[in-house]
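Page 47, continued from p. 46.
Same chain as before, 186 aa.
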Amino acid sequence: MEQGLPERYEVIMTGLGGGGILTSGLLLASAAVNRYRYVSWFPSYAISKRGGLVECTVIYSEEEIASPLISQAAAVIVAEATQFEDFERRIRPGGVMLVESAGLQAQPRRADIRIVKVPAIETAIRLNGTSQGANLVLLGAFAEVTQTIPAELIRAELEKSFAGKEKVLENNLRAFEGGRSLIRKS
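Result:
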């Protein structure tokens, strides 16, 4: 493990089914395998049709991971702004929340966390003409904010996962880099 990286890092990701949040979690976990000894990806979703709430937990660590179930994480990615209040309490003090800014009306109640509002849907539409890929805008923003997993490793996983689907890969890479760019410009 490189110096400066945390010994353990937990991420909770949430969004609506079909929005790619589970894919983002799997991409992050797959990239983390290249940096950490132990990695866990734990998806969770309600038994409902497309559009129901989904969540996944990604943990990467130098020590064994006793359980993928956690009540709080160092980072939370919220792709559905209406879930802001429910997930704000699931961030450890000193942690960070990246939240889709479209439709966000709730105000932060905590001063001990960092909240990064990301116009992921708007960015995906601007870059690719569709909201598909907003999950990757958020993942790119996460990579840039936390720097716990190098963006190059996540890009490599995107290239592996979407090999043979050139247009999809091109759009996904553009969305991921768009998320990174939003943070660099802020």
